[in-house]
Amino acid sequence: MTLLRDPLLNKGTAFTEAERAALGLRGLLPPCVLTMETQAERVLTNLRALPTDLEKYVALNALHDRNEALFFRVVVDNIDEVQPIIYTPTVGLACQKYGLIFQRPRGMFISSRDRGQIAEILKNWPYPAKLIVVTDGERILGLGDLGANGMGIPVGKLSLYSACAGVHPEQCLPVVLDVGTNNEELLNDPYYLGLRERRLTGEAYDSFVDEFMQAARKTFPDVLIQFEDFANHSAFKLLHKYRDEACVFNDDIQGTAAVALAGLFSALRVSGGKLKDQKILFLGAGEAATGIADLVVSAMMAGATEAEALRRNWLVDSRGLVVSGREGLSGHKLRYAHAGQAPIADFLTAIKTLKPTAIIGVAAVGGAFTPEVLKAMAELNEQPIVFALSNPTSKAECSAEDAYRYTEGRALFACGSPYDPVTLSGRTFVPRQGNNSYIFPGVGLGVIASRSRLVTDEMFMAAAHALADCVGKEDLAQGSLYPALPRIREVSVRIAAAVADVAYQRGLADGPAPNDVKALVQSQMYEPKY
Ligand SMILES: NC(=O)C1=CN([C@@H]2O[C@H](COP(=O)(O)OP(=O)(O)OC[C@H]3O[C@@H](n4cnc5c(N)ncnc54)[C@H](OP(=O)(O)O)[C@@H]3O)[C@@H](O)[C@H]2O)C=CC1
Ligand SMILES: CC(=O)C(=O)O
Ligand SMILES: [Mg+2]
């Protein structure tokens, strides 16, 4: 019975006759032995009969808790259909309804009441974690502060690690640091499962996170820690504090940067332009925007000076265009506070003034790329680059349909959350996701396989190139700037090998480079089967 209740070992009705006899399972299962293929078909039949995506999320979560191999088989073999349920956009709704749909806990909940005992508590985790995705729930996708409900995000990200890059589920530990929430609705929600108190701030917050970081690294030596969906006042600080001493990265800053840069490389293959000649206007000036801009600047520096490259990247935040002399600018915006430009309050005027070749939406302002914005980009550019990267779909700057329609099908488009193909004047466009989910699984696999001590920006640059190299002419011909999702495990191997190469070249890896880095990476991948 214990075996049937252990999701890492359970095969359910697929236990063979011999296994049933040897493991004391006879009588505990119906007599018919099913194959994994039949089990997967049954899962899909049930899933497709459910009326809403949230119900599908709950059903998949229950399968995940029952039988991990079958769950991952279903995800891997049906990634186009299932990813939008276990990840954005449905995971956003699942986080908002986390208390209501809660069935079984997954991952670790470390709350500020656990101060002084975090190392002790981490010992309760029964598996040897090599990869932690941790959030404090303060900026969940573009949905804001969801407190402990944010747990859905580390769970979803780690499911993609196992499905898309074959990191063994046993090595994956989702963590929410429950430091309270300032979300009144949650504080008054009878089903809310987190601490009903306001967020820790200042020294109390910093020392709590620090205790977690030290405890996690002591309990799970060599663990890779991914910071996810922290608000930007914490995200930059934590990344800078730990990046040179621990194996950490921030997915929203660095992972997003790599996926966006790869998308730009693809777009330029279509338009024939050079990266150093682009002018990029970001809507948003936070983690994603400055993360992307910083990596783009590094890439532009292959053919331009740093000053030239910086000047080709402009940010619009909640108060308008970021320019030199504007008061109270946060540190992460300062590189892009250019001189010689008067303040501009709105995005459309900024477009008409600066004449960008690309706009990248990462401000979580749904619909901000209005028909006027898109038409202005189409007037300025033969092939305008339009990336609407905010998540979930309700926060997307524009839909795929609008992006193509208002640019007469000339936009080179990517979206953070998925959109169906769009047919316009007889041509069908297949938009793909400029989402860090193309990057972090491969990066994590490469770091774990090489046992790198640190995660560097050079690795994200290598990941961006590796991802872009996976995009074929047939993808570009249909407007896709990324490879098809069913190829994701092959893509992750290429990214992981590129990342591991950097680790070996920079002396960050554990030992000398093997003859075949790709084979090393592949040898470590989990395959969901019995
Ligand atoms: N596709 C992907 O892979 C990823 C997508 N994202 C998405 O990007 C979005 C932002 O994430 P992130 O950068 O981490 O969040 P941050 O909170 O760090 O940044 C948000 C930025 O948007 C700006 N902003 C808010 N309102 C407006 C407005 N009305 N006009 C212009 N700018 C505005 C904020 O301005 P101010 O600085 O003045 O407060 C801030 O600079 C989210 O929706 C997230 O889901 C994030 C990571 C990855
Ligand atoms: C994709 C992602 O990491 C985000 O929207 O926060
Ligand atoms: Mg995120």
UniProtKB/TrEMBL annotation:
Family, per entry: Belongs to the malic enzymes family.
Species annotation: Bradyrhizobium huanghuaihaiense
UniProt xrefs under SMART domains: malic (SM01274), Malic_M (SM00919)
Keyword Oxidoreductase: yes
Gene3D superfamilies found in the cross-reference section: Malic enzyme, N-terminal domain, NAD(P)-binding Rossmann-like Domain
Domain Malic enzyme N-terminal: 64-243
Active site residues per record: 87 (proton donor), 157 (proton acceptor)
UniProt-annotated binding residues for (S)-malate: 139, 391, 435
Name of the protein: Malate dehydrogenase (Oxaloacetate-decarboxylating)(NADP+)
PANTHER family for the chain: MALIC ENZYME-RELATED
